[in-house]
Amino acid sequence: YSKSSWQRYLNAVQPPPRQAVEALCRVAGEPREDAERFVVRWELAVQAWPRPAPPKGAPEPDSGADGYEDDPTLPWWDTPPEEPSRRLLRVAVGLAVALVLGVVIGAFALG
Q1: Count of CB atoms situated within 10 Å of the CB of 21
Q2: Is the separation of the CB atoms in 18 and 35 below 8 Å?
Q3: 7-55 per-position pLDDT tens digit
Q4: 7 and 51 in one domain?
Q5: What's the pLDDT tens digit per position in 60-90?
Q6: Looking at the structure, do residues 69 and 98 belong to the same domain, yes or no?
Q7: What total of structural domains would you count in the chain?
Q8: In contact, 2 and 9? CB cutoff 8 Å
């Protein structure tokens, strides 16, 4: 999950999706029984989570029995790879230019 997603979850801005709780338990090496207890606690927390009222005139959101819809954010290992950007190329060219300038300036300083 993204850094900004974890910031929302850990700062109590938004409850984490069930999959995030399960993934965190796996990463932390929790035994299956403990992980199941965390998921049960998640279910209780989501039921108690305060939800803002919809804007005036807007229909009530249809988000399932408990009124909570999982965040569609994917964990980093399930996210499709992004196309390579040109940023890396720009950084490499910039470093090469800086290196050449350093060598030229150093040669003049010594000579």
Answers
A1: 20
A2: no
A3: 888 888 888 888 888 888 888 998 988 888 888 888 888 888 776 666 6
A4: yes
A5: 555 444 444 455 555 555 555 566 667 777 8
A6: no
A7: 2
A8: no
Domain check: are 37 and 64 in the same one?
yes
Same domain, 46 and 88: no
- Joined together, the tokens standing for residue 79 give 């996210």
Q: Do both 51 and 99 map to the same domain?
A: no
Residues of the domain holding 24 = 3-80
Amino acid at 8: R
Q: The whole model's pTM is what?
A: 0.45
Report the sign of the C-alpha dihedral through residues 12, 15, 19, 25, in that order: positive
d(CA 67, CA 51): 9
